[in-house]
Amino acid sequence: MKPSGVRAYVLAPLYYAVALALAILIIANANDASRAYESVSAHETISAKTDRALRDILETLSLGIYGGGTELAEQVSDAVDVAQYHEARATGTGWLLLGFSVAFLAVVIATEERGRRNESPTIIRHLFGVSSIFLLVGLLAPILTVVAHEDIALLGRVVLQYESKGIVTTIHKLFLVANYFLASLLLLFSVVLPVLKILLSIVALELGHSPTRRASVLLIKIIGRWSMTDVFVVAVLLAFLTADTAQLTDATLGPGLYFFAGYGLLSIAAGQMMIGYEVKSPSPSVADRH
Q1: pTM score, two decimals?
Q2: 121: buried, middle or exposed (CB in 10 Å: 19+, 13-18, 0-12)?
């Protein structure tokens, strides 16, 4: 095994272990932040705002003996603090995963021989590996948060609806409401085809020049023709979810969208290199695996 292969072989397990842990933290904190903000929004509905106003009046009339208004305000403040804490952790961990991934790929590319970089199986393997980590975050973390609100006299700003959407949770909800067409479309292009492309690439890289490998590369080429469809479908989903959003609706993009887009870019690059590697591969087997 060449020195560059040894370095990649030693560094790769460390990267994937840390990257997977960071991905899980991003998903957990992003979803915790969404749940906490949902709790905050529940305190800003018409009924909740009315209840708080009545509690404030009773607290004022009782000269502070009844402290229901203050207690409720403290609960809302605590929920906001929890939401901001998890949001900050998700954002910071996301930047850490991005930087760590860029550094890892830079090392893998730099340690490969310059003349072999365009068709290096090591680079292709790790492009697909990093894209898999990004895909995991993209599928399970929120991609969009929508808050519909309105200003009402005496109550001020009230929340009419709060929804935090991720790709997998959206697919599940679409199936529940019997919107099978859009659910199947999202499932196919956002989950099935990306996972299938990664699995086929592993098969093609690890097998010699066999019918199975040739079939895998052929399928990768076919899937590659739809390489941006998954991103397009998510864009359509965003447009669908934010449709009819007037000035009284706030839409915030979540970390899942950015990592899903990152998966798309890495997957396209890896797919093109995979096709080039298959064309230029001179030997009947993949000898240089690391």
Answers
A1: 0.81
A2: buried
